[in-house]
Amino acid sequence: MHAIRLIFLLTLLLTAAAWPAAAQNQPGGTQQPPPIAPAKPYKPVAVTAPAPFDDPGFAAMRKQLAAAAQKKDRAALAKLVVGHGFFWENDSGSAADTKKSGIDILSTALGLAAKDGAGWNILAGFADEPTASPSAAPEHKGVI
User: Fold this and answer.
1) Angle subtended at Cα 28 by Cα 27 and Cα 30, rounded to the nearest 5 degrees
2) Cβ-based burial of 112 (10 A; exposed 0-12, middle 13-18, buried ≥19)
3) Which of 36, 44, 45, 109 is deepest in the core (most CB within 10 A)?
4) Which neighbouring-strand residues pair with 89?
5) At 90, which helix (H) or strand (E)?
6) 48-83 burial: b if 16+ Cβ within 10 Å, else e
7) Helix, strand, coil proportions of the chain in percent (round to 5)?
8) How far apart are CA 113 and CA 97, in angstroms?
9) Closest Cα partner for 106 from 139, 58, 74, 131?
């Protein structure tokens, strides 16, 4: 009987001694994460700015667009937009209401009705940008 008590006490002592070490190895314990490696410098990447789109018709259209945007002249802008067949695509496909005119679709897309003039500012920024490229989509051949 004396031996059983001794074995029980030794087992209890060993278990109690091992308990804190086991708790530290559990997720959420007080163990600190390993240090983060210092950041390495990035390798330089060569970037070539796009060349201006050298087309006299495009340059003339940009001037007309800039004038319309500056004056917030929807009628002048409407003369530069196709009446029907205007497209507006987003990630989920076509966002244009085919029942509306081109100027109505463009106005919605840019938010030209916004009181802060943000849509007109976007349009003025586009008019100021001399670079452009033709659309790669075959269904939009001739679109810049």
Assistant:
1) 110
2) buried
3) 109
4) 94
5) strand 89-90
6) eeeeeeeeeeeeeebeebbebbeeeeeeebbeeeee
7) 45, 5, 50
8) 17
9) 74
> What digits encode the pLDDT tens for the residues 47-87?
998 888 888 988 898 999 999 999 999 999 999 988 877 77
What type of residue is 31? Q
Estimate to the nearest angstrom the gap between the alpha carbon of 97 and the chain centroid.
24
Q: What is the pLDDT of residues 78-137, one digit of tens each?
A: 999 888 777 777 777 676 677 888 888 888 888 999 999 999 999 999 899 888 777 777
Q: What angle separates helix 118-128 from helix 102-110, to the nearest 10 degrees?
A: 100
- What are the structure tokens assigned to 76, written together? 């002048």
